Amino acid sequence: MKKIMLCIACFTLALACYGQKNSIIELNGSWSFKKGDNPKWAKPKVNTASWDNRILPVWDWDINYLGYGWYRKEVTLTAQETYFFNLGQADDDCEVYFNGEPLKLYISKRPGNDNADTSKWNQWKKYRSYYIPAKLVKSNEKNTIAIRVWNTLGAQGGIRYGNIFIGNTVFYNQLPVEMQGNWLKTDGSNEWLIGIYNSKIAYKGKVWDYSNIKKENDGFAISIINGGKTETIFAKMDAATGNCLIGTNDKSLELCSLGETNKPLSDTGKLQNYTQADTTSGKAYFSGYIKDFVPAKGIDAVIELRALNSGQSFEKRMPVNADGTFSMDIPLNGAHQLLLRLPNISETIPAYVAPGKKTFVGIDPEEFKIRVTNEYYNRDRPTLYMGDAVLQNKLTLQTTWLNSLVEDDKKVWDRFVYTGGQYAAASYADEQLNDIAAYIGQNYNKYGDTAALKSAKLWSARTLIASPENAIFNSTFNLILQNLGEHLEGLQYRVKALRIAEKTKNAEQVSAYKQQIKKYVSDMIKN
């Protein structure tokens, strides 16, 4: 019995110690390469003195070469435990061997990355990960990775895109690999509840280490730790759907999926009194996590901040920690758009920050590697924000996607309109709601979406009823009414009369015309 208890204690301690590790071995760079195909090249001991050197990842094959090629590299691992090998994309397709043994391909279940797609034309799109069982690992010795790649469909081949690295993982042995990913609530909110990764967990706007993992009641009790604070999460896979049940215990579980779930929205129609959004001064709290971060010395991110009320901008440098976490308290006057630029990531990541509000962003570097027309923007990747301004952040990102499309894409547009509906359903009546309505008014015709324009009319009316003197709100409402072919004369007359009353500082008339505008708009949207 003592031996059993000792084993359990050692196992728990091992997990606790593992939770503190974030060991990533970068394998980008020089690999041995040889054209042709020979099964012996998978074996551990191969003389590669005559092989070429190729820098990966890159489309590196000779133009018009159709056929096979092999890449090989040696790596020293310090412990005999399970690892994961991240390869990225291979064109057209590939097989991977570790110390001569084939590894089973695991396609990370990010939306648009379909493991079930067996079409030979689509294999190059997959982001490839492989789990290396502990029994194959030789600790403190050289281990050999061999990759057999073939290109039979196009002019270029090779290891296409993606960071190549080996890292520690809790999956395969402690947790099922299907549990890996960013899990969103399926209640229609699409709230990002948790990110479960190889060596970290994103939860409640923080990054946590694994402390202990215990199997119970057909699921897993996962203990996590952050700065001395501990929490326990219960997670259970639904084998039939591939979704995951997640909660603080096995009695309070929420169904989550890796993709978004849109459901009919309920807008209470309750109007708030208008106040200009986030005009106070104070600190905004911005933080996040780069999944499977490959550390380097002196890594800094650059953040550009643009004031939403004036457009003025400034920049700051922000260090990125070795485990991929980052955080900064930013003194601000009013709300700002934040543009995050990270090393080795080609795209700028937008966020919404404001005094007194917390914004946490999750970043998967693999999401920024694919560049195939609109596929980069429209393959259902989730918007990974936690904190106090999630909807504002989602709208900021989705507007960026829409503006970056090479060709108009209804799928991206529908996601933006749905999030706009979520914002309206939360009973806001502010600049953000006006911006949503204005964007729809300016762009609905590209998508033939009159239904969205009619919704935008209601949202714009809400802002105008809350603040009838706001010239920008009036302009948005007029634009939408013009697009719908509705009459404006009565409203325009009252707005002009209000402007005159404001200039003459006639408080009684200002109040009267505001009430008239509110009633006019209210009557208009009732009809």
Using brief descriptors, characterize the structure shown.
single chain, 527 residues, alpha+beta, Jelly Rolls, eight-stranded antiparallel beta barrel, six-stranded antiparallel β-sheet, 26% helix, elongated
What does the model show?
By secondary structure, this protein is an alpha+beta fold. Among the domains are: 20-168, Jelly Rolls (Sandwich), CATH 2.60.120.260; 177-257, no CATH class. The protein has helices at residues 2-19, 375-378, 390-404, 410-425, 431-447, 450-466, 471-484, 489-503, 507-526, and strands spanning 24-26, 29-35, 52-56, 67-77, 83-88, 90-91, 93-98, 101-102, 105-107, 128-132, 141-151, 158-159, 165-168, 181-185, 192-196, 201-203, 206-216, 219-226, 229-238, 243-247, 253-257, 281-290, 300-307, 313-319, 325-333, 336-341, 349-353, 358-363, 385-387. Mean pLDDT is 84; it is low at 1-20.
